[in-house]
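Predicting holo structure, zinc ion bound.
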Amino acid sequence: MNNKYYLKCENCGIKIGDFSIWFKNSQTCPSCKTNWATVHYYDPIKRITEYIKPNGQKPDNLWHYFDFLPLLDKKNIITRGEGVIPVDHWPFLEEYAKRKFGINVTVLAYRNDLNPGTGTFKDAAAASAASILKEHGIKEYSIASTGNIATAYAHYLAAAGISIAVFIPNDALEAHEAEISNYGQRIFRVNGDYAMAKQVAAEYSKKHGILLSGGNTDPMRVEAKKTMVFEWLRQLGKLPDVYIQALSGGTGPIAIDKACDELSELNLIKKVPRFILIQPHNCDPMTQAWKKAKANNFPEGWENDYPVINNPHSKVPTLATGNPKTYPIIGSLVKKSNGEIISFNEDEMADVAKLIAYETTVKIGPASAIAVGGFFEALKDGILKDGETVMINVGEGVLRALDFMAEMIYTTINVDSVDECKPPARGDFAAGLWAKFDKYAE
Ligand SMILES: Cc1ncc(COP(=O)(O)O)c(C=O)c1O
Ligand SMILES: [Zn+2]
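Done. Tokens:
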């Protein structure tokens, strides 16, 4: 017990106490054994207003929000400067929306690729987990992951002196494997899909009595990602109307919803962003479930009606969650926010990434290309409205997706002599890059 925070079971509602009790019970509720608990603070979150005041000074890292994170002693903080990343303005997408759809939107990009740990959306969660695990003297941990979360955990837990066994599916990118290995963390590449990697990891955790990362509702992850909302308030003074994110299991929306609930209760915000979540079309079980539920007017039990895609063949292993066990939670959050779950054609990811790099010099990775692609799809579907501010989560850079990087090559001319080399005009490429998106407006 402590006087800062407590965990509460989301199923039976009992107060669990702190992480030591949660860990002792293998991250389940001691009473009903559910593995979903949320963190609550004794000190009212209203004090957040002290931390989100625009004073022109950039905080050093996630731990700027220490008072609203479940860590007791600052000496246990592990950080690489994550979680305080810029929000960029992307006017070229605003111009497209105006030109092709006649609507005025403000488009912002949340630059998670600039996280200094491992360059993804997952660094904040890993910093939080590494610090909390350190505080509770945990020396061994385990995780099943499609790539980004494992890489972030491998890095931050190494910094905390904690060993982690990482279970990756057979389609995980080699660059992830190399990086995790580099930190001296053990990898088990499971001969199967992500669902199978999770299963082997769960058996390993049970067999050896080693804690396994709790997945999308893991309170250590949710609390860290919650600070995203604080950062938007600090940087923009308000929340976006729409939040666009590539969807795998949905930790992002779960965390945003939690922050917004707490802030709304205190009248600190008036509106929660609408979630527009995007899946790659080759692994989009949540989109399929959502479409079906919507077409049938959300019949009784719709949240539990979802397909399972075994061994999904997606080019975005990071997003290849074929068995979307969190759909009951995510579907409900999306409905509550008046949002949508849609898909983007993953064969067009490179077109998106080339366009973004051309317009901004930002090199986005595959999962980010799915999110940005979702912006075009959302315009086509008529689900963005005049006057709205849209935040796109750029969850990762291109760093580890070497095959995807190779698809970026488009300006090369092979030559035999100088006679074939004409001075280039960069502007000549614009029309061709933009033309790929004409069809969204037809
Ligand atoms: C870059 C990136 N974007 C989005 C996601 C999806 O995150 P979630 O669905 O857990 O919120 C992931 C998950 O691995 C990711 O790595
Ligand atoms: Zn319980």
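The chain has 15 helices and 13 strands.
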